[in-house]
């Protein structure tokens, strides 16, 4: 359960930017929302959408990066064609999403309002992780929700775990990989601390491939220019990600629903850790819009969470 006061603090910070946007641009305000695994980003997105719609009369909808995955067969081919790359053996990483679908959807839904000339309805992408015996798959297009564009769409919340990540220059990535190999985790560290230092376990070429995919993503559908403001859920202890994810799985177990075993949780989160090691530092320290020439009025809001996902601090970078 998210503290409603924290939601209101974030909304209050966003409202001036939304108001300014509506006075200047005839299209929906796009709010990016990024968060670590288990941080509750989907819950935050829903809570923000509810608050903006119900209290502030700003009609808001959400879309998740998860809804833009490649379909099952395409993911299977990607996995087989990159058999030695551990980062592409499951969905999640840059490179496992349908980039054309993402770009076309966002282009259409964020197009300037043209009154009666605008398309009446748009199909809202959806992905079902329970399809194909739990391997996941795209919901048939015929079953996607049809959303009327004749009605108001004031705010679109686009959430995803790697939104806000920026690709690194190749030499910088190489240096990070080299440093991880020259300074392996110490056996005196806690297990969870050792699990946050994983770059040395991945081939450089595999990391460079993910970096190249992230570069394409930022150039086509999730670069800073896509967003009118940004909310980042983070923490001061990266090892908490493992605890957060285990908490979510435990909640599923209590409800009698399928859930990952603890060892599978560790394996799952480790798949995301290299990207955190490469890209999270910049997002934690600098505004996503710092180098953007069109950043006037855009807010980057950092929300720091504790071990129980309670909000410790909220500040605008």
UniProtKB/TrEMBL annotation:
GO MF annotation: an example: kinase activity
Protein name per the record: D-glycerate 3-kinase
Keywords, sorted A to Z: Kinase, Transferase
Species per Swiss-Prot/TrEMBL record: Purpureocillium lilacinum (Paecilomyces lilacinus)
InterPro entries named in the record: P-loop_NTPase (IPR027417)
